[in-house]
Amino acid sequence: MKSMIRSKPSLADLPKTVHGGQAWRSEGIEDHSHNLNPFGPPDCLRDIMIDALDGVGHYPDDSCAELKDTISKAFSVDAENVAVGAGSSEIIRNFPHAFLERGDSVLLNSPSFAEYGHQCRIAGAKILTNRLTEENDFRIDRSKVSEAIRSGIKALYICNPNNPTGRIEPRKKILDIVRECRDGGVMVFLDETLLELVRGYEDITCASEVKRCDNLVVAGSLTKSFAIPGIRIGFGFADPSLREEMDKVRMTWNVGQVEQTVANALIRDHMDHVASAAKVMAAESKTLHSRLTEIGFPVGGVSDSFFYFNSLRELGVKCSEFQRLMLKRNIMIRDCASFGEPFEWFARFSVKDRERNERFADAVESSMKELA
Predict the structure, then answer these.
(1) Closest to 37 (Cα-Cα) out of 239, 270, 243, 269
(2) Does the pTM exceed 0.70?
(3) Residue 1 maps to a domain
(4) Residues 6+ away with beta carbon under 8 Å from 57
(5) Range of 240's domain?
(6) Per residue in 234-284, pLDDT tens?
């Protein structure tokens, strides 16, 4: 006899989210589809992890007190403003489960990171879409945001730099939106997990503004900046009252002892590793852009960040086909079809060091010749 048990209706047609960074499944493939620090983690990471094993015989500190203190000093906030999660994905999960009721409306930019909508739908929220257009260089249109605020949304999501477009909105624009949202009773979830790999991020980040904006939650992570996606360490910044509510829905002992030890060491002693990578990629982005322009690839302007989001319409090919051609040359790029129409025509790829960027450009040139 078949069971009559069913999941809740909001899960009925909920697809699994799609992400880049899958080249590790294939041998010999250089992965330009992810947005990780191309220089990997610091060489000392193995020793830090080995030393951390001494503490696995007891439960981790559920409050992450030492790690919160370290994060607070590094990001100029108070420890009471800091939440810690198993990657920024847990901060993304906890936000709607703490603050959204079934039927609440949220505004998501599109295209943007798929996990926002995924978690909002699980929470039962109604998704409104602010389409980022090629004609507007995929920038946030303030007038559309203002219209949504007046319509009665509960929350707005912003990713800065936006994934997948790579566009960075200036700090003033972000804060103007946050203040307008505050006046309209709207919360803002600001994802800055990619920002530390942007040169000059200190002038863009809004992390410290949570001390003045009680409707703002900012998410960060070590995943991209230290290239450690296999070690789940994320954090969030918020007014203590918001952080306390998010703590109510997080899993107990969500960040293990090894992760806490690793995060403490990396943030306390090795942020220069991230700054160095950001400096190199900023310079290499210009070099790669120049080379791609020379060979006739429709690269557009120099990226705001350290990854590119380009239409392949001029080449007359959708990204799935161009991805196939690049894989023949042992290079993985991100097919953006999962972001919906018209993004099946778009590719995303990240900047690395000079040698790998040159191989990437050679593969692009060779693939374009095969298309001709």
Answers:
(1) 270
(2) yes
(3) no
(4) none
(5) 45-270
(6) 999 999 999 999 999 999 999 999 999 999 999 999 999 999 999 999 999
